[in-house]
């Protein structure tokens, strides 16, 4: 019989007749700043606004975003666990870019454009693979090592020596944080440091979930014929949950107590659980335990954290009005023979099934947006003060494509 449940800074420890049993990590606020509570300003003074709707369909603008936003910011390429062994690789494809990420023998990662320097086709044909030592272009057999260095050219003597000396696949910056592989197409010399991009607020607050200790349970992919920013917009407001997601009145009430935080280019949002509203007047309110914690890392990475499991939403633009939309579900690992873990797993999976239905509702609104995306009547969006993150997101995008 479980006689006590103690949340420590690291693990849920169940004390049963004096024996400690580690079940799963429980994120807690600890020494982190309050994000909800009496001393926290819940809503910045931004106010209501309107914005132009052409940002979702202007092909010239999309090209600028490809170059100056998608080409210069950190984005997810996959989970670290997908490339565990030396020579294991994954590929990333989106916004007309084709990248390969390879685990090196020393445990580090290398990433490079999967584009042959000879005449341009993809070097690596398979989307994923294991244990590669070399990659050979299927067209004429140029050979690259796992860091993208060109190490072999058949009939090399026929080429201009200057043309083929010191070249390799174009490098991409790559890093790991939170058990995620992040890439930046600006390249290793120009990319701002990954943690600087995520920022200390998010790396500390989201860091409490220890995503690096979680495992991928499922990833779902949709091909959505709308602009990726319209999908991000849906994660930058909670106004729609009452109507689209039919949330019960107590949840709608709780959303009115949510707090919104802007940190650099990124956002944090905390929605208290209805059962915790009475505790909101306490300075020690623990948002990790008692709220849905939500983080948006510019330009297209969204973390939605329930204390026991989390979802990552990743709209990858394929074109100005087409998006590969990935939804990743992460859970804490454990031993299914342990009844406590089996109970955690069952409860988490039940919640995940509900959330999949919720994502399905979001997808259903994308269908309606698809019908009107080029309509002459869709010229402007009217945003409430609680939709201000959408306005700031698009202001950031504007500023960056002008830089
Ligand atoms: S195009 Fe790759 S070897 Fe010729
Ligand atoms: Fe939604």
Number of distinct helices: 10
Largest sheet: 7 strands, antiparallel
The amount of helix comes to 10-25%
Q: What form results from the Cα inertia axes?
A: globular
DSSP strand count: 22
Which sequence of strands runs across the widest sheet? 5-14-13-8-7-6-9
**Mean of pLDDT:** 94
Residue windows where pLDDT falls under 50 for at least 5 positions: 1-21
Mind explaining what this structure looks like?
The protein is α+β, with helices and mostly antiparallel strands and 403 residues long. It is 25% helix and 31% strand. The protein has helices at 59-70, 161-164, 194-198, 200-205, 228-235, 241-244, 249-255, 287-290, 339-372, 388-402; strands at residues 4-7, 11-16, 19-25, 49-52, 75-79, 89-94, 97-103, 109-113, 128-129, 134-136, 143-145, 150-152, 171-177, 180-184, 215-224, 259-263, 266-272, 291-297, 301-305, 309-319, 322-331, 380-383. The strands form five sheets. Strands 5-14-13-8-7-6-9 form a seven-stranded antiparallel β-sheet, with no helix packed on it. A seven-stranded antiparallel β-sheet has the order 15-21-20-19-18-17-16. A three-stranded antiparallel β-sheet has the order 1-2-3, with helices on one face. Strand 18 and strand 19 form a beta hairpin. Helix 1 packs across helix 10 (388-402). The protein is globular. The termini are far apart. Residues 1-21 have low confidence and may be disordered. It binds FE2/S2 (inorganic) cluster and fe (ii) ion.
């Amino acid at each position: 019989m479980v006689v006590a449940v103690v949340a420590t800074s690291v693990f849920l420890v169940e004390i049963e007749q004096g024996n400690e049993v580690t079940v799963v990590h429980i994120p807690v606020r600890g020494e982190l700043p309050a994000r909800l509570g009496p001393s926290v300003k819940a809503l910045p003074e931004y106010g209501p606004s309107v914005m132009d709707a052409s940002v979702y369909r202007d092909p010239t603008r999309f090209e600028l975003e490809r170059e100056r936003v998608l080409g210069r910011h950190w984005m997810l390429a996959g989970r670290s666990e997908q490339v565990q062994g030396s020579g294991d690789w994954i590929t990333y494809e989106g916004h007309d870019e084709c990248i390969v990420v390879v685990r090196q023998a020393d445990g580090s990662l290398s990433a490079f454009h999967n584009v042959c320097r000879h005449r341009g086709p993809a070097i690596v044909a398979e989307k994923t693979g294991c244990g590669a030592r070399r990659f050979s272009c299927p067209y004429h057999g140029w050979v690259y090592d796992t860091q993208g260095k060109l190490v072999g050219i058949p009939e090399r003597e026929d080429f201009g020596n200057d043309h083929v000396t010191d070249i390799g696949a174009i490098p991409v910056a790559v890093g790991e944080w939170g058990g995620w592989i992040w890439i930046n197409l600006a390249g290793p010399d120009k990319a701002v440091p990954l943690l600087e991009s995520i920022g200390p607020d998010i790396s500390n607050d989201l860091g409490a979930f220890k995503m690096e200790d979680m495992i991928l349970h499922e990833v779902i992919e949709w091909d959505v014929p709308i602009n990726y920013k319209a999908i991000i917009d849906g994660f930058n407001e909670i106004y729609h949950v009452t109507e689209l997601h039919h949330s019960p009145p107590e949840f709608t009430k709780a959303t009115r107590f949510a707090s919104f935080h802007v940190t650099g280019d990124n956002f944090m949002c905390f929605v208290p659980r209805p059962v915790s509203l009475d505790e909101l007047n306490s300075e020690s309110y623990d948002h990790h335990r008692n709220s849905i914690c939500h983080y948006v890392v510019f330009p297209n990475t969204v973390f939605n954290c329930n204390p026991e499991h989390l979802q990552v939403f990743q709209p990858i633009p394929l074109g100005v009005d087409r998006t590969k939309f990935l939804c990743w579900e992460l859970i804490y690992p454990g031993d299914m023979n342990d009844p406590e873990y089996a109970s955690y797993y069952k409860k988490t999976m039940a919640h995940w099934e509900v959330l999949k239905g919720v994502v399905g509702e979001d997808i259903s609104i994308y269908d309606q947006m698809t019908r009107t995306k080029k309509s002459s009547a869709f010229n402007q969006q009217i945003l409430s003060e609680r939709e201000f993150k959408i306005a700031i997101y698009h202001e950031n995008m504007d500023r960056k494509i002008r830089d």
